[in-house]
Amino acid sequence: MFGLRPARLCAAIALGAAALVSLSNAQAAEGDTPQVALVMKSLANEFFRTMEDGAKAYQKENPDQFTLIANGIKDETDTSAQIRIIEQMIVAKVDALVIAPADSKALVSVIKKASDAGIKVVNIDNRLDPDVVKSKGLDVPFVGPDNRKGARLVGEYLAENKLKAGDEVGIIEGVSTTTNAQQRTAGFKDAMEAAGMKIVGVQSGNWEIDRGNAVASAMLNEHPNLKALLAGNDSMALGAVSAVRAAGKQGQVQVVGYDNINAIKPMLKDGRVLATADQFAAQQAVFGIEAALKLVKGETTDAKDGVIETPVELVTKP
């Protein structure tokens, strides 16, 4: 299965008109290096652009180890587009697939198809549903952070520094069918409930700025005593910051996020965002690629109970 063959590459590009496709080391049309397809969620989200950049940099440092095909969808919820990309990679006969799934269940069937075609699959960022994976007879290692732990760290910092027992808070969740959204919400709840806060609402912002803004605005309007908005990623936190400003409640309503994207850093510095969590997007892709290359070589990964845990850290005002 090794070697980047022009016909396979052309097929992938021709079929990928709806996808955002980029190729690293495309000149290496011949050779013995395996092809690794990195399939991410929305490249409109800075987190996944950073992930892509990290993967490309790693490939440039290791051009003799693998060639990279990097793909992303336009919309965080467009699972059908992501399925089509994976089908394209099956046609292209890539050697490995590193996937950050847009949905924890809906992608499993096409991943099964890829596995049956002999493609080695590694799951990153958002964990595929273990029960669904098991029901398909798949063994797909997950490479990523403990999202619940990261969100709990953020929530605990918020509670300890800015809130008091009984304060009202709202949670802006990511796409509700994704495991990482569910785990981050669970982590926020862990921290808020332990500190005695009143959670007045949990609504999905679909990981997006505009939707996060709309959810935050509705919560602020419905709950005038709201003291904090806990956003499942920094894109939604950006939307929440705008909603807080529009409501004239700067300094009265705290905002926290998750991902530590560059756009959030000035807001951490000036206090518009209290805290976030860094799960090291660039390195996460690299860890996934490293695991995939081991599988291609017939080696075992470092997974424990199907998981290779990567770092997550609390980030506050610099």
Please give a quick description of this structure.
The chain is α/β, with parallel strands linked by helices and 318 residues long. The protein is built from 11 helices and 13 strands.
Strand and helix layout:
Elements: H1 6-15, E1 20-24, E2 35-42, H2 46-61, E3 67-73, H3 79-91, E4 96-99, H4 108-116, E5 120-124, H5 130-135, E6 142-144, H6 147-162, E7 168-173, H7 179-194, E8 198-204, H8 209-222, E9 226-231, H9 234-246, E10 254-256, H10 265-270, E11 276-278, H11 281-296, E12 307-309, E13 313-315
Parallel strand pairs: 2-3, 2-4, 4-5, 5-6, 6-12, 7-8, 7-9, 9-10
Antiparallel strand pairs: 1-3, 11-13
What distinguishing features does this structure have?
disordered N terminus, about 20% strand, about 325 residues, four-stranded parallel β-sheet, alpha/beta, seven-stranded mixed β-sheet
Task: Give a structural overview.
The protein is α/β, with parallel strands linked by helices and 318 residues long. Helices cover 42% and strands 20% of the residues. It has helices at residues 6-15, 46-61, 79-91, 108-116, 130-135, 147-162, 179-194, 209-222, 234-246, 265-270, 281-296, and strands at residues 20-24, 35-42, 67-73, 96-99, 120-124, 142-144, 168-173, 198-204, 226-231, 254-256, 276-278, 307-309, 313-315. The chain is built from eleven helices and 13 strands. Residues 1-30 have low confidence and may be disordered. The longest helix is centred in the first third of the chain and has 16 residues, at 46-61.
What string gives the helices and strands in order?
Answer: HEEHEHEHEHEHEHEHEHEHEHEE
Order of the strands making up the biggest sheet: 1-3-2-4-5-6-12
SS-based class? alpha/beta
- The pLDDT mean sits at 91
Number of strands: 13
Biggest β-sheet description: 7 strands, mixed
Uncertain segments = 1-30
Integer-rounded radius of gyration? 20 Å
Strand content: 15-25%
Helix content: 40-55%
Q: Helix segment count?
A: 11
Shape: elongated
N→C terminal distance: 48 Å
